[in-house]
Amino acid sequence: EAQVTQNPRYLITVTGKKLTVTCSQNMNHEYMSWYRQDPGLGLRQIYYSMNVEVTDKGDVPEGYKVSRKEKRNFPLILESPSPNQTSLYFCASSGQGWGYNEQFFGPGTRLTVL
Amino acid sequence: EDKVVQSPLSLVVHEGDTVTLNCSYEVTNFRSLLWYKQEKKAPTFLFMLTSSGIEKKSGRLSSILDKKELFSILNITATQTGDSAIYLCGGGSNYKLTFGKGTLLTVNP
Which of A23, A33, B81, B99 could cysteine-pair with A43, CB 3.0–4.6 Å? Predict the structure, then answer.
């Protein structure tokens, strides 16, 4: 089944404790992206990747890092999480550029930083 | 900076009503306008619009794009309680998909 998976689905952590949210897709997609969703602010892009070793900042990259060492995986790293990073995070992938066809979204990761 | 604005932000209707959701956009190197439906989980794809004036339909849902006026509408006819969701509109360029804040639709029985 074609899908995007994320882990963990739920995470409660404390300020400053490094964490990684994994994202994996099995559709051989080149384009992958991370979003955060906050009430009243909609979905905002954090980082995106156009291929292995090619990443760039989205609209809200501060406090996040990403890497793309393999085509299928695009982990999101929070080196020193803060409470303002409490949010719902979605990973998405697309076979072509984002304006060319639909994105497939992962199930989401709800992160709480205390 | 790319911008997508949806209206209204929330809407409450009764089953059987017809609703129109609006999306205006300012996207550099615009390629397409995408609509998604989000219930209590990940967004699911509804439509992608690239050409002006061509309506896309799927059952009771339809959407159209006006590239001259930079907006799109999503129509839902004969609404059902299962249509209750957040509807997201996104403007796509080569490297980015910028979303609006969404319209929260509540359909009451």
Answer: B99
Residues forming a β-bridge with B23 = B6, B72
CA pair distance A9, A25, nearest whole angstrom: 15
Distance CA A95, CA A79 (A): 29
The answer to whether residues A51 and A110 touch, using CB atoms and an 8 Å cutoff, is no
Residue A98 banded pLDDT, cuts 50, 70, 90: low
Rounded Cα gap, residues A48 and B84, in angstroms: 30
Residue A102 near residue A2, CB atoms below 8 Å: no
The tens digit of pLDDT for each residue in A50-85 reads 999 999 999 899 999 999 999 999 999 999 999 999
Residue among A43, A99, A104 minimizing CB distance to B93: A99
AA letter at A7: N
DSSP3 helix / strand / coil % (chain A, rounded to 5): 5, 50, 45
Q: Nearest C-alpha of chain B: how many angstroms from A8?
A: 15
B-chain CB neighbours of A9 within 8 Å are none
> Distances in Å between the alpha carbon of A1 and those of A30, A97, A107?
18, 22, 14
Given a contact cutoff of 8 angstroms between Cβ atoms, the answer to whether B6 and B100 are in contact is yes
